[in-house]
Amino acid sequence: MALGYVRPARPEDAAEIARVQLATWRVAYRRLLPRHVLDNLDEAWLARRWSAAVQEPPSAAHRVLVAVEQAEQSYLVGFAASGPADAEALAPGEPATALGAGVVAVTDLLVEPRWGRRGHGSRLLAAAVDAWRGDGFTHAVAWTFDGDEATRRFLTSTGWEPDGAARALDVDDMLVPQVRLHVAVPAEPDDTP
């Protein structure tokens, strides 16, 4: 079992978050997205975006969490980003009110493949759920690539299920299908005997 923990991202984590994102996409999505698109992603540009997300979130409910593996030294091995559901969480043609109030959208939940199956994804999701509960969210949604079986298996193993919404992202003139998953945010566990 891995020794690890989750904490809020710090400004100095932005470059490492970008590195993890790029490394993960190039492995996990190599059969889903055009190779030249993955090869041409700019790590410095991604780092600037993550720096802004960490330092200037749109609201207190927008969060970036990082997973850290502890060994002789510590490594940032994954991250999760979420915030109140907005237009990006909607399916094409869905009205702005379709998801209702109290819904949080997961925009990223990635663990670098070489650090996978060590509990980091579960720790990230558990920490995110704790934060969502504290923010008063009652439901969560996440878009996944239709062909991303690993992410779908992980989320469905924790109670997420497809909600029937679908879309296709236009990635360099290639349509990449996605499905939306949803889950109820569980209430605070009752510790009374």
Structure, described:
With 193 residues, the protein is an alpha+beta fold. The chain has a single domain, classed as Aminopeptidase. 30% of the residues lie in helices and 32% in strands. A 7-stranded mixed β-sheet has the order 1-2-3-4-5-7-6, with helices on both faces. The chain is globular and about 45 Å long. It starts with a strand and ends in a 9-residue tail after the last strand. The mean pLDDT is 91.
Structural class: alpha+beta
State the total count of DSSP E strands: 7
Tally of separate domains: 1
CATH topology: Aminopeptidase
Q: How is the main sheet built?
A: 7 strands, mixed
Architecture per CATH nomenclature, i.e. the level-2 architecture: 3-Layer(aba) Sandwich
The end-to-end distance, rounded to whole angstroms, is 30 Å
Strand order of the largest sheet: 1-2-3-4-5-7-6
Task: Please write the CATH class name.
Answer: Alpha Beta
Q: What coarse outline follows from CA principal-axis ratios?
A: globular
Radius of gyration: 17 Å
Helix content: 25-40%
Average pLDDT rating: 91
Low-confidence runs (pLDDT<50, min 5 residues)?
Answer: none
Number of helices: 5
| The CATH fourth-level homologous superfamily | Gcn5-related N-acetyltransferase (GNAT)
| SSE pattern, N- to C-terminal | EHHHEEEHEHEE
Q: Could you tell me the strand content as a percent range?
A: 25-35%
